[in-house]
Amino acid sequence: GINAEYGGLDNVFLQFNNYRIPRENLLNKIADVTPEGKYISSVEDKVKRFNAIISPLVRGRIIIAQHGVMTQFVALAIALRYSCCRRQFSYGEELENPVIEYQLQQYRLFVPLAKAIGLHYATHWLQLKYYDQQKKPASQQTKAEEDEIHSIASAMKAYATRAAVDTAQQCRECCGGHGVSSYSRLGLLRSEADPSVTYEGDNNVLIQQSAGYILKNLHKRISGKEVQSPFGTSSFLSRFDAEKISTLKVRTENPEDLLDDKVQFEVFEDLLNLTAHTSFLQLQNNLTEGTLKAWNETQVFFLQNVAHLYSQYIVIQRFHQGIVECEDLACKEALIRLKNLYFLDCLQQSQAVLLESKYFTPELTKAVKTMLFGLLGEIKNDVATLVDAIAPPDAVLGSALGLSNGRLYENYYSAVLTGPNVFSRADYWKEIRAPLKTSKL
Predict the structure, then answer these.
(1) Using an 8 Å Cβ cutoff, are 144 and 228 in contact?
(2) Is 245 within 8 Å of 296 (Cβ atoms)?
(3) What is the pTM of this model?
(4) Does residue 376 surpass a pLDDT of 60?
(5) Rounded to whole angstroms, how far apart are CA atoms 150 and 74?
(6) Which of 23, 118, 372, 423 could hold 315 in an S-S bridge, CB 3.0 to 4.6 Å?
(7) In whole angstroms, what is the distance from residue 189 CA to residue 177 CA?
């Protein structure tokens, strides 16, 4: 049938009836069938063979994640430029305020902006690591590397595509009625992003692979075995202590310390250890009903949370490294503000875990909100420059609301007047006009 979007992609099936495929047409990079009918493979280890077969899927997921980041950049560029130009209401002055001045508009757009830039660093890093790994001969690729790359790619694809859909929708709403117009491009961006949460692996299934990777390594840690993390995304398990996990608390009560890089990493690692351990215990409790059912009954509030925190942890890691490598001081300071905003919003999302485990006090949780609001006001002064950094050229942006010249209403008016058949009447106008003439009203 016809797709809701991407109409150029065909949905087809092939049906064969007693048709023989010649041996030379087999897809036999990894395995083959001899003329005698024997199955052979150049990769003897079954696990490595499986990883080699699914490797193209990993590459596809990385590309889809990066595409999701670009969708966010385009949508945010449109909505933020619109918000800087669109005026509505005032605090008593004669001139109305740009809507970017309002805290709610800032929160709705600045948090997704911080997430998108963090995801940009994370997906770019992942792409480079994946290519480095693929350059190695198969004999030099370790199982630990393959498992971790697969886990990261699954998490990033799910996180970036979900963010793309949500951000495009949020940007559409932040532009009000103008955002509904096809000239904004926001509705199209949202519709085009929508299938990405399903293809190349449904997001809700993919993150289970990441959660499984974490729990498998946690089980190793509890059993006293070494946990290998070549790319550092599960290195937080080195902090896991089964005897202290139930009494774990943040090491500071000063809210300002939460903006320190070292403290941010510690908080995230403790959160991951807490949720992973809770999920591990819940899974063990459910095992009496069978492994598959136990796994399915441990998704909501448990394994899903582990995978989500894992995705956020990777973003924080790469965001931090991107800032370290940034040489421009003004740019570095702007990125630090965005990274801190992203971190504080992640804490807001994990508020239930923080309070239930007593890792945070209620007072510290309230302070997180106050600090978050303060950062919104600071980021407002950076936003025009940040948008110019992430926005593609106007011709690629394709939106009358987000052009770089800042002439919002002129651009929109021009787009409307130059649209196809804009001054033409509908073909059926005479059919409507005739009854109106005879109406007694």
Answers:
(1) yes
(2) no
(3) 0.90
(4) yes
(5) 28
(6) 118
(7) 16
Tokens of 26: 């087999």
Alpha-carbon gap, residue 386 to 116, rounded angstroms: 12
User: Tokens for 17?
Assistant: 């009836």
- In total, the chain counts a number of residues equal to 441
Residue 87 main-chain phi, psi, to 5 deg: -105, 140
Residue at 19: amino acid letter? Y
Looking at residue 105, the DSSP 8-state letter turns out to be H
User: CA separation (Å) from 369 to 269, 344, 345, 372, 398?
Assistant: 21, 8, 9, 5, 36
Q: Which residues in 214-232 are b (16+ Cβ under 10 Å) and which e?
A: bbebbeebeeeeebebbbe
Query: Can you tell me which residue has the tokens 């080699």?
Result: 52
Q: Is 32 helix (H, G, I), strand (E, B) or coil?
A: strand
> Cα–Cα distance between 322 and 400 in angstroms, integer?
32
> pLDDT value at position 315?
98
**Structure-derived torsion over alpha carbons of residues 403, 168, 62, 214, reported in degrees to the nearest 10:** 140
Per DSSP, the three-state class of 49 is: helix
Write the burial class of residue 276 (CB in 10 Å: 0-12 exposed, 13-18 middle, 19+ buried): buried
Alpha-carbon torsion (402, 404, 408, 410), positive or negative: negative
Average pLDDT, the chain: 91
Task: Say which residue the tokens 């770019």 belong to.
Answer: 124
Q: How many angstroms separate the CA atoms of 67 and 72, rounded?
A: 9
For residue 13, which amino acid is it? F
Secondary structure letter of residue 87 according to DSSP: B
Dist CA 14 CA 26 (whole Å)? 16
Which three-class secondary structure state does DSSP give residue 41? strand
Please report where in the chains the tokens 């063990």 appear, as a residue.
284
Q: Which two tokens mark 51?
A: 């990883």
Nearest to 355 by CA among 347, 269, 416: 347
